[in-house]
Amino acid sequence: MNAEQLQAIIAAGLDCTHLTVDGDGRHWSAVVVSEAFAGMRPIARHQRVYATLGQKMHTDEVHALSMKTYTPAEWAAQAN
Questions:
Q1: How far is CA 31 from the centre of its chain?
Q2: What average pLDDT does this structure show over 32-46?
Q3: Is there a contact between 14 and 33 (Cβ–Cβ < 8 Å)?
């Protein structure tokens, strides 16, 4: 799997206003910005992203994914 494929999978399962994915084919990092995160704790946000990956997390297609998750307002505030 490459970064574009992983990004497409996340985007297909979660409406994102910003999404970047980087990695080496096994270990990935992502920045995910979605209105769906409003009112969620960080762990719930991560679980929401993991849900888009389904079995890929369990079959080791995606070995590790570290992520930063933001609502659009949080993303705009941290950019300043």
A1: 6
A2: 97
A3: no
CA 3 to chain centre: 12
Nearest alpha carbon to residue 22 among 38, 2, 42: 2
Say how far apart CA 4 and CA 2 lie, in whole Å. Answer: 6
Listing DSSP states for 8-70 in one string gives: HHHHHHS--SEEEEEESSSEEEEEEE-GGGTT--HHHHHHHHHHHHGGGTTTTSS-EEEEEEE
Q: How many other CB atoms are found less than 10 A from the CB of residue 58?
A: 9
Span between the terminal Cα atoms of the chain, in Å: 34
Asked whether residue 62 carries a pLDDT value surpassing 90, the answer given is no
- Chain centroid to CA 17: 12
Q: Give 13's contacts (C-beta < 8 A, 6+ positions apart).
A: 51, 52, 53
